[in-house]
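ligand=adenosine-5'-diphosphate
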Amino acid sequence: MSLSVLMVGSEALPFSKTGGLADVLGALPLALGRLGHRVTLVVPKYRYTQTHGTSATIHVPLRGGGDTRVVEQPLAEGVRVVLVDRPELYDRASIYGMGSDYPDNPRRFGYLCRAALEYAAQSGGTFDVLHSHDWQAGLAPVYLRTRYATHPRIGKMASIFTIHNLAYQGSFPSDWIGLLDLPPDVVSIEGLEFWGRLSFLKGGINYSQVITTVSPTYAKEIQTEEYGAGFDGILSARPTDLFGVLNGIDTDRWNPAADAYLPEPYDQDSLEMKAASRRELLEAMGGRISAEKLQRPLVGVVSRLVDQKGFDLVAELVDQLPELGFSFAVLGTGDARHERMWSDLGAAHPDRFAVRIGFDERLAHLIEAGADMFLMPSRFEPCGLNQMYSMRYGTVPIVRATGGLEDTVTDYNERTGQGTGFKFKAYTAAALFEALERARTAFANPIIWKTLQQAGMRQDFSWDRSAREYVKLYESAIARGKT
Ligand code: ADP
Ligand code: GLC
């Protein structure tokens, strides 16, 4: 049966991006479309969002709301995006805030959710499932089950909620309730109430029939105190509603054999061509290029620089790291503390650390192609996309065995020669150090290294498999809604 899905989230390629959510919302609707389903994706139109669609007006019944322009744009057969154009909410320098969150974020994203449901109601179409992503879309199922519960066409939609990151909980003072036109009874322990505040994330979870997260291991981890960020009780109480669906990757956008950002394309049988990307990368990052530097194993990092990503382990190794025989190419932006750590390393050892603070799509591709190894020592990682991009680019990941990193990378076994990367388990600098040493030893043997690279390149991380899993869960949510 062909399903009609209303999807809501805060960022999606090619319209906006700060992290992996944008990659997922850019690719999943298209993968569902290829399976014959219809998808309407509703996201904000931000300052830098380019649109080529047609305008329509919907009425959004929120205080300070009213007539709202939306841009409808087809993306593929059966798949369209609806961009909510409300300049006073979204036409700003950044997506979530400059340095700290914008104080009206509850309104900005509450508005998005309400607009998505109004669009569905006013478009005259039918929808089987509401699929909301992360706290920014958490109020969509809440509105659906309250304000739209008796709507003749959309009131019976099933709801599925995907957690991309439990660390962001959308927690706000409870006086937002009136401003967001939420009925007072949602402020309860079974509703949005969380430690005396409102949590949009909790709303998304509690008002949905099915909850998913982006890897099977993270789905288990978040039911424990260590990884549950206060939600372990809520999630472990619903074990039969919670599923882990591994993200796929966009294999067109991330394809070393046809990547317009690379000086020379390459594949499994022409790995020597990575050298051209390496040279271009080192040139782009600045600094002197010596023969020795071209020989040394190059470790890439492309990341939001936040606590989640494990760079405090790197901070513990600042004295040893420059002596280890690696070079590093680092691209990232985020918390001042982590930015400073990398910038200081770059300033102290310019020959070893090339560091760029900022967001740069081309450089991200060049690092994936030009590096030998890719480092993700995450404290927790719901899925992680860069380790999959790395494997596809013949760049061997060094990762902490958590969440999606555990599920996508197989630890290299020195005895059998099997594996696709290097994993460490304990969240300690010593364990990271040992993984780096193992990687350097393997790198010194070109035959072993090539085997590792090719094993990674053979992995299938395409979206079609994950999209099929979502379809099964949509069907399950629909079935649950009928009982
Ligand atoms: P997260 O969503 O937690 O940031 P993921 O690994 O799922 O982690 O996705 C991160 C995405 O954002 C990847 O596509 C990565 O290439 C991209 N990215 C992160 N930081 C930068 C940056 N500074 N410049 C360009 N791309 C970046
Ligand atoms: C989040 C997670 C990341 C995941 C991404 C897409 O930002 O931090 O691990 O890959 O969402 O699901």
